[in-house]
Design goal:
Blueprint: H1 3-19, H2 40-54, H3 71-82
């Protein structure tokens, strides 16, 4: 995942957090779901965003919440999905 894609991802995650009145800084390795900053509805939004924006096929990808629990984890998932 290149820098501009990571910026797009970070912006999307920041928007989800803002929608939940969470304006605290977000760090690339910080937990989003396990920590409770985002919930299961946000997980659905993240999955849809990744499918649409980065062509991640979750039908062909092992899914566990930990795979989308941080910006770093999501970047790894996108890179793996691309082969």
């Amino acid at each position: 995942m290149d820098v501009s894609e990571r910026d797009t991802l970070r912006g999307f995650i920041a928007g989800l957090l803002r929608d939940r009145d969470d304006t605290a800084d977000i760090y690339a390795s910080e937990s989003l779901f396990v920590s409770g900053r985002l919930d299961s509805l946000a997980a659905v939004e993240v999955v849809a965003f990744l499918e649409e924006s980065f062509a991640v096929d979750f039908a062909a990808t092992d899914f566990a919440i930990e795979r989308i629990d941080s910006i770093d984890a999501i970047a790894t998932l996108v890179d793996e999905a691309r082969g």
